[in-house]
Specification:
With 389 residues, the chain is an all-alpha fold. The chain contains 20 helices and two strands. A two-stranded antiparallel ribbon has the order 1-2. Strand 1 and strand 2 form a beta hairpin.
């Protein structure tokens, strides 16, 4: 009798799990279809326009960090979003001036979709996982991906480059991987945390090589565009980043402090995360890929501004590794549509003005908290794997 009850209980549990997977697949599939439809709507160049205008200005000897007719601005406002990326980005954006921006933004949308779907499918094929179909649906439903290609952003190419790092390391081509890391840091300097943590974790040659690659890549624009573009970039940043740090899509812990009303609290949180990461990595004997997964997450958390799109760089690790509950919870939050979180961040505090800062620093900072939980959970998984080796 007890055996029959146990079998019935297991069978019931299996049915519940199956129904849960089906329900999740339906929700994720619905989101994918919605994003596919919504991503093709509208008639704006968005951030791609800023990159195109920046590259065109650089070719013409103008200030690539000034505002031009194609520079993205929020509708009905005087708020513009110029190219925030350092001069290394001009080497990538200048060729865009040779093509029609309206045609190119559509081409990059379709190319981005094909490349991303191919990357997800190929990775899951090469690294079979339980619930691979559900994991693939989750990856395809991430708002960071769809918003990135809709806006014409650079995060998808960066993710492909990060995947190349995993590929190169797995084939013992650490020098080539270090060069890719250095170039990524030259495009997004907050990723300098990556080679620093590689060095601290004991991968000193690779950390130094990535640092040297960063310096070399950062200096490449000098003979092409002149030293003035570096000055123009710093001048633009000095008056631009402050207002962006508290925006709801900023996935850093510094943003949590800003939303709570204290930049000092944000700096303290960032310092604590960095100190914690150094302590956990020192002498832990983690592999390059394990260290890299942690380093990317830490780089996002301690940055003044790092949009939730940066978390796409963790997909090469997330699609390969087993998940614990922390990773699963963080992954679920990563899949929350941006309009839903925007409503919580912007509209809900209007109904509770006395709690506005608390709302924005808690549920309104869902992407930041998810990034923090993700880094902690990945670190725990990596340390456990190192102890078992």
């Amino acid at each position: 009798m007890n055996g029959r009850l146990l079998i019935a209980s297991l069978d019931q549990r299996f049915q519940v799990e199956q129904l849960t997977r089906i329900a999740l697949a339906v929700v994720l599939g619905t989101l994918v279809l919605f994003y596919f439809w919504f991503g093709q709507q509208g008639a704006r160049l968005y951030d791609f326009g800023s990159f195109w205008a920046s590259g065109k200005a650089a070719l013409e000897g103008l200030n690539p960090y000034a505002v031009y007719p194609e520079t993205f601005n929020l509708p009905g406002t005087d708020t513009y979003h110029p190219n925030l990326n350092p001069p290394f980005s001009l080497l990538l954006f200048a060729p865009l001036a040779w093509v029609d921006p309206w045609a190119m933004i559509k081409v990059q949308w379709w190319l981005g979709l094909a490349a991303y779907a191919g990357f997800v499918g190929f990775t899951l094929y090469r690294h079979p996982r339980p619930n691979a179909m559900l994991l693939g649906a989750w990856a395809l439903a991430l708002p960071a991906f769809w918003d990135g290609i809709r806006m014409g952003q650079v995060y998808l190419p960066m993710m492909i480059a990060a995947a190349a790092v995993w590929h190169l390391v797995e084939r013992d081509r650490s020098l080539a991987a270090a060069i890719v890391i250095g170039c990524l840091a030259a495009l997004k300097p907050n990723l300098l945390v990556w080679p620093v943590l590689l060095f601290i974790a004991g991968h000193r040659r690779m950390g130094v090589a990535a640092g040297l690659a960063f310096v070399a890549a950062s200096l490449l624009p000098l003979p092409v565009f002149g030293a003035g573009v570096y000055v123009q970039w710093f001048e633009m940043l000095s008056g631009d980043l402050g207002g962006r740090s508290g925006y709801f899509a900023n996935a850093t812990v510094m943003a949590i402090g800003v939303r709570a009303g204290s930049h000092l609290l944000g700096l303290a949180l960032a310092g604590m995360v960095l100190a914690w990461a150094i302590r956990r990595l020192w002498g832990a004997r983690l592999s390059v890929t394990e260290t890299s997964a942690i380093a990317i997450g830490v780089a996002v958390l301690v940055s003044p501004v790092a949009w939730m799109h940066y978390l796409l760089l963790l997909l090469p690790a997330l699609l390969r590794m087993r998940w614990n509950k922390g990773v699963a919870i963080a992954a679920a939050v990563m899949a929350v549509p941006m309009p839903a979180l925007f409503w919580v961040f912007k509209i809900l505090p209007l109904h509770f003005p006395a709690l506005a800062e608390a709302i924005r620093a808690t549920i309104g900072s869902a992407y930041s908290w998810a990034a923090l939980l993700l880094v902690i959970s990945i670190t725990r998984l990596c340390l456990d794997a190192a102890r078992d080796r």
